[in-house]
Amino acid sequence: MKFGLVLEEMHRSENDLAHHLLVISERHKVDHEIHHLARDLARWSQQHVRDIADIAKNYGQNLDPEPRGEAGLMETIREKGSEMVGRRPETGMLLLRDLRELYLKACGVSADWELLAQAAQGMKDKNLLALAQKCHPQTIRQMKWANGKLKESATQVLVS
Q1: Per the structure, how many domains does the chain have?
Q2: Domain that holds residue 144
Q3: Alpha-carbon span 61 to 152, nearest angstrom
Q4: Entry pTM
Q5: How far, in Å, CA of 38 to CA of 45, rounded?
Q6: Which residue of 4, 38, 46, 84 pairs with 67 in a disulfide if CB–CB is 3.0 to 4.6 A?
Q7: Domain holding 20: CATH number?
Q8: pLDDT tens-place string over residues 106-145
């Protein structure tokens, strides 16, 4: 069934979004707002991964319920790099790139939740529709946060 493939892609996309948020969190650790909020937002996607894996069983998919974690060595390297770079001008450009990528990933996941919700309505699958209605607003919040941080940071980074 095609629907199992859609859930598999959603699972991969949410995993990727969560991982990207964690990478941003570590890469920009000196910016406490970015660090902590990105971690909080990553937890939403990590829960989405678990929820998708759970419901995917109904469609013949066996997806890993554990979200992709950070590699210990890479995390340490990023952390040290973040500390060394601090608030240098290059860091601002890196932040803009990271936020842009995050925004685009979140937009894609948001579109996927829309598609999933439409299919769930068409199939009259109340559980799947409930999952989409629970997760999609959180993805929209992730998207809006990335867009807001881009707007907030762009002038400071690009003009100064």
Answers
A1: 1
A2: 2-159
A3: 41
A4: 0.86
A5: 11
A6: 46
A7: 1.20.1260
A8: 999 999 999 999 999 999 999 999 999 999 999 999 999 9
